[in-house]
Specification:
mainly alpha, two-stranded antiparallel ribbon, globular
């Protein structure tokens, strides 16, 4: 059968689609197409994800200026990271399809802002890393449980 030919109605064809569009069941939205806005998960995906996580950690520490920075610099760095985070999510959520720059910008800003948020809870509130790690793990368990 040619690659783009329509399968015969009497044959059962089970193929995994490599396109970014998925047609949902006819009971949900018969005319609406659901678009994938994330990249294919490959080894390269994990390399880039690892690099954006490391970059987020380094960028967060650089913006905050280290442990000896004043509260003004920490607040300015946190505000800048929050703006970047909000803008990146706004762009990603409005995207109509996978756009690498938009997607990886959002991933990078999650890394930067997430690191700042975690460090801020430790530094500003004085909570131990052990306590905050357990709290984050429990939060994820609850989210995935739902």
């Amino acid at each position: 059968m040619p690659r783009f030919a329509r399968p015969d109605a009497t044959r059962s064809v089970s193929r995994v689609s490599t396109t970014t569009a998925v047609q949902p069941s006819t009971t949900a939205w018969p005319t609406r197409r659901v678009l994938a806005k994330v990249p294919e998960i490959t080894a390269l995906f994990w390399v880039v994800k690892l690099l954006t996580t490391g970059m987020g950690e380094a960028c967060s520490d650089w913006l905050a200026g280290g442990a000896d920075s004043g509260i003004g610099r920490l607040a300015m760095a946190g505000g800048l990271a929050l703006v970047g985070f909000v803008v990146s999510l706004w762009l990603q959520l409005r995207a109509d399809r996978y756009r690498p720059v938009t997607y990886w910008f959002a991933v990078a800003m999650v890394a930067v802002f997430g690191t700042m948020a975690a460090d801020g809870v430790h530094s500003v509130l004085g909570l131990s890393y052990t306590l905050t790690t357990v709290a984050y793990v429990l939060s994820l368990v609850v989210i995935f449980w739902l």
